[in-house]
């Protein structure tokens, strides 16, 4: 057991997850949530996709969180993703210079989301990827997946997770190259072409 | 065909019986809801049917998911933790103080992390454009709060007690009063969004969202405790709610668990 300042920590049972419901929109999304890349950075990539349900219908009430390393493979430890204006309490947006690595984007009425971030570098034994956490009304517990970039086939072939995923489902984890640093990545919660979702142990 | 509360109550009972049977057959305690929970209709087309792929974080301590995004004072504005003082006037309702600790499964405090909350006003109405419940809006209440946990993992919000609200899934469907919480831990794997309830609410047995947590002990962990010592004299009633994040983090991987 780990000693804490105030006494001995005891193992405890987890608080159950619950759906975000339909009304998080005035609380969680923030202006510039998907503008993760510092302005004018040469390693900027653009991501765009849709979130779809088991009937192939787009979700207008989902949001994603993206979390990735910088181009050098280092993980940012910088706050300021949702900088606030001390005078008005409103959102200032990111400072355009620092890279926090984290962003939050809502789907629009057509189920589309988009974000600009930096091309992640490789870490550990994995090919470069962005970690994604999906939330939606109707989803009792968030879902994790990964966006791998298609640019380095050799690195993808050596990735320990991709190696374990059935070949016919592997493509759901790899973004489509749309050229000039743009990538497409749809998330299908259920059914035909269902995205591979992950759990960490 | 009109879906009634009785129909939903029967489905909830069937899910409870199915869980009891799984437990009797030696299945593990389910601390979280199943993503496929029929009494909550919106889950039907929004849960994966393929099994999740498990990642053993002990095999690669460098995973980005074992780190967490950082938040700091720049991400907050003064008064974010006091929802009763975000407008020119006072919101209507019973003022409450909600305090607790953010912990990991080992019982260790999660320090300096972001907690976001959102809730309906005291009449049960959200300040959201898509909200269709015709209870009155309160011009002095947005129902949105943020705080960073302190050195002991503690957080504290001042707000008004939210009202219950109808939500149209079935005839006479009412959500028990609740506050939505969004939490970050020491690793992205510990991310949690959940809801805090108030003790003794008669709507508990009828709400498919709360009942989606079929384990009795786990469900009780979503209910705050009335704590008289947290009441602020002549101002607010006090509730205590500790939150425990699930999921591995970097220290676990480092310890080679
Ligand atoms: Fe709600």
UniProtKB/TrEMBL annotation, chain A:
Entry keyword annotation includes Oxidoreductase: yes
Region (Disordered): 1-26
GO MF terms held by the record: ferric iron binding; protocatechuate 3,4-dioxygenase activity
Pfam family name, one: Dioxygenase_C
InterPro entries for the chain: Intradiol_dOase_C, Intradiol_dOase_core, Intradiol_RC_Dioxygenase, Protocat_dOase_a
Family assignment from sequence similarity: Belongs to the intradiol ring-cleavage dioxygenase family.
Name under which the protein is recorded: Protocatechuate 3,4-dioxygenase, alpha subunit
Domain (Intradiol ring-cleavage dioxygenases): residue spans on this chain: 44-122
Entry keyword set: Dioxygenase, Oxidoreductase
From TrEMBL, chain B:
One of the record's GO molecular function terms: ferric iron binding
Pfam families in UniProt: Dioxygenase_C, PCDO_beta_N
Keyword flag Oxidoreductase: yes
Source species, domain of life: Bacteria
GO biological process terms on file: 3,4-dihydroxybenzoate catabolic process
Keywords: Dioxygenase, Oxidoreductase
Gene3D superfamilies tied to this protein: Aromatic compound dioxygenase
InterPro entries noted in UniProt: Intradiol_dOase_C, Intradiol_dOase_core, Intradiol_RC_Dioxygenase, PCDO_beta_N, Protocat_dOase_b
Domain Intradiol ring-cleavage dioxygenases as annotated: residue spans: 98-126
Family: Belongs to the intradiol ring-cleavage dioxygenase family.
Protein name: Protocatechuate 3,4-dioxygenase, beta subunit
Organism: Streptomyces zinciresistens K42
């Amino acid at each position: 057991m780990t000693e804490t300042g105030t006494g001995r920590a005891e193992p405890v049972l987890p608080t159950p997850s619950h759906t975000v419901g339909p009304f998080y929109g005035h609380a969680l999304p923030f202006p510039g949530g998907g503008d993760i890349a510092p302005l004018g950075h040469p390693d900027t990539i653009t991501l765009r996709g849709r979130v779809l349900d088991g009937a192939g219908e787009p979700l207008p009430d989902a949001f994603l969180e993206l979390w990735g390393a910088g181009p050098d493979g280092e993980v940012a430890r910088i706050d300021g993703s949702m900088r606030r204006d001390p005078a008005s309490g409103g959102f200032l947006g990111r400072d355009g210079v620092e890279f926090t690595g984290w962003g939050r984007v809502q789907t629009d009425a057509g189920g589309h989301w988009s974000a600009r971030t930096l091309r992640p570098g490789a870490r550990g034994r994995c090919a470069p990827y962005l970690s994604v956490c999906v939330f939606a009304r109707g989803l009792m517990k968030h879902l994790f997946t990964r966006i791998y970039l298609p640019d380095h086939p050799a690195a993808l072939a050596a990735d320990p997770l991709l190696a374990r995923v059935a070949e016919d489902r592997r493509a759901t984890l790899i973004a489509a190259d749309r050229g000039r640093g743009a990538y497409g990545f749809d998330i299908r919660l259920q059914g035909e072409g269902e995205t591979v979702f992950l759990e960490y142990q | 065909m009109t879906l009634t509360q009785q129909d939903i109550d029967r489905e909830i009972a069937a899910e409870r019986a199915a869980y009891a049977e799984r437990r009797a057959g030696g299945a593990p305690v389910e601390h979280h809801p199943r993503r496929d929970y029929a009494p909550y209709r919106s889950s039907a087309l929004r849960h994966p049917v393929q099994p999740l792929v498990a990642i053993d974080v002990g095999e690669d301590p460098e995973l980005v998911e074992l780190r967490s995004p950082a938040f700091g004072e720049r991400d907050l504005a003064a008064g974010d933790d006091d929802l009763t003082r975000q407008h020119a006037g006072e919101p209507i309702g019973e003022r409450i103080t909600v305090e607790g600790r953010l912990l990991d499964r080992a019982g260790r405090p999660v320090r300096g992390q972001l907690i976001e909350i959102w809730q309906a006003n005291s009449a049960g109405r959200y300040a959201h454009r898509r909200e269709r419940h015709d209870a009155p809006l309160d011009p002095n209440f947005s129902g949105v709060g943020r705080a960073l946990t302190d050195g002991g993992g503690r957080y504290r919000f001042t707000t008004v007690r939210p009202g219950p609200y109808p939500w149209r899934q079935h005839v006479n469907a009412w959500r028990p009063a609740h506050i939505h919480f969004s939490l970050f831990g020491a690793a992205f794997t510990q991310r949690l969004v959940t809801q805090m309830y108030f003790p003794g609410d008669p709507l508990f047995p009828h709400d498919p969202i709360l009942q989606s947590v079929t384990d009795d002990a786990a469900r009780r962990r979503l209910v705050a405790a009335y704590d008289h010592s947290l009441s602020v004299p002549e101002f607010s009633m006090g509730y205590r709610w500790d939150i425990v994040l699930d999921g591995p983090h970097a220290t676990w991987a480092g310890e080679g668990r």
